[in-house]
Amino acid sequence: MTGLRAKQKADRNRRILEAAASLFREVGYDSARIEDIAERAEVSVGTFYNYYENKGDILVATVSMEVEEVLESGKAIVENPPATTLDALQALIDQYFDHSLVYLSKEMWRIAMATSIQQPESPFSRRYTELDGRLCDQVSMLVQKLQLRGAVMPGIDAVAVGQMAFNNLNMMFIEFVREEAMTLETLKEHVARQNRPLALLISSPRIQ
Amino acid sequence: MTGLRAKQKADRNRRILEAAASLFREVGYDSARIEDIAERAEVSVGTFYNYYENKGDILVATVSMEVEEVLESGKAIVENPPATTLDALQALIDQYFDHSLVYLSKEMWRIAMATSIQQPESPFSRRYTELDGRLCDQVSMLVQKLQLRGAVMPGIDAVAVGQMAFNNLNMMFIEFVREEAMTLETLKEHVARQNRPLALLISSPRIQ
DNA sequence: AAAAAAGATTGAATGAGTTCAATTTTTAAG
DNA sequence: CTTAAAAATTGAACTCATTCAATCTTTTTT
User: Fold this and answer.
1) Is the CB of B178 inside 8 Å of chain A's CB atoms?
2) Distance between CA atoms of A118 and B195, rounded to whole angstroms?
3) What band does B4 get if pLDDT is binned at 50, 70 and 90?
4) N or C, where is chain A less crowded by C-beta within 10 Å?
């Protein structure tokens, strides 16, 4: 069922997304006009709006692709985490943070996050939120894995702990993208300090 | 040095803020046009922009006043918290949540949060962020107080624990305002579950 | 193959946020 | 009191994001 129409649709979609992503990178979000994006993608302004609900939406789409990569890159660590709770948590979180600024600027993160909060019903916001939920699950799954291994005490609510750790890192990431001057290193240090009490307390005594 | 100019400025500022807050409440953020706000405040559109950088800014200003009240209302609980860590934390957090929807709709929260993330440098975003920091400090201070009382074990990094608890509740609040259908009760339950492991683990054994 | 229906594209029109040069008001100086 | 300087106000003009009725393309039906 790959008719001409479907092929054209996929092609236009790709062109618009690429045009937007490149323009955002070149001139920033605010200076990239829909008209410019449409022109670069060789479609009309109206067509742009056939593919994306609004300007923020296409940025969220771009950022979502990045989050998917982050999620993917986290799998390896959850599969085979470091031995101690502290190291394992920190390894996963640092992985997230390191990945986050490879393709995206702080400005792009800010706008994507803001858009996903402001218009939570738009399709790409939903997608973004869903990916966020998957990241949260990944952290929880790490804690569960550590619990199965015996590194985390039995009886601990691993899901609750994972959610709290994730919400904390997520909020800290928001703080990070808000402050242009804050470095990745500082972010990691702060989160590491915040994680330490929880990580140590849930760990089985002999494993330290 | 209360010249005429200063008095007029304060008066216009108040009128604009009140006009905006009432209009937002009456017709919602999107439908409230700057022109309408200016008209109700009996100033020109240009003057509006002399007092607020943009439309989002004045919403953030409105919301900030609310956050100040929340902060104020939290003081009582920190001064004289419930005996156990779990109860004390939950009392403070529930207080925050209960206060949050008295004057503000979810929509207003969404837009205020989005604006403060998107334009972190604007004066009112800074103010909002600063208030957020004070809320975070308040949670940390509660944990410190519990530690002094002996309810929380010595040796625990109370500040780190407080920050994590705050970041968690803040992120959960974002989730709450994102989902129009989510009730305050559900929010409280989720956060209560997330807090339990941390609260129990940091508590001194005999105090349970 | 022609006609009808469905699906997409188009770009001019719309509308709201924002800007800024001209004007007015207030303060300070002479 | 007059005049100059500083500060604030004003609203028409401008910029974009967004919409939508008309048009064109693709698919389906006969």
Assistant:
1) yes
2) 27
3) confident
4) N
> Which of A107, A118, A179 should be substituted to probe chain B, the one whose Cβ sees the most B Cβ atoms within 10 Å?
A118
pTM for the full model?
A: 0.95
Interface confidence (ipTM) of the complex: 0.94
Write the pLDDT tens digit of every residue in B159-171.
Answer: 999 999 999 999 9
CA distances from A45 to A50, A52, B47, B98 (A): 9, 11, 34, 45
Instruction: Give the closest residue to A111 by CA, choosing from A70, A68, A63.
Output: A63
Rounded Cα distance, A144 and A5, in Å: 46
Q: Tokens 């004070």 map to which residue?
A: B134
B133 CB near a chain A CB, below 8 Å?
no
User: Residues A45, A58: contact at Cβ < 8 Å?
Assistant: no
As a whole number of angstroms, the distance between CA A146 and CA A152 comes to 6
Q: How many CB pairs under 8 A join A and B?
A: 97
Q: Which residue has the higher pLDDT, A114 or B204?
A: A114
Q: Which amino acid would we find at residue B203? A: S
Domains and their CATH numbers in chain B: 1-51 (1.10.10.60), 55-202 (1.10.357.10)
Chain A residues whose beta carbon lies within 8 Å of the beta carbon of residue B177? 117
Q: Are the beta carbons of B71 and B138 closer than 8 angstroms?
A: yes
Percentage of residues in chain B with pLDDT exceeding 70?
98
Beta bridge partners of A203: A152
Residues A160/A161/A164/A165 CA torsion (nearest 10 deg): -150
- Which of A161, A168, A178 comes nearest B197 by C-beta? A161
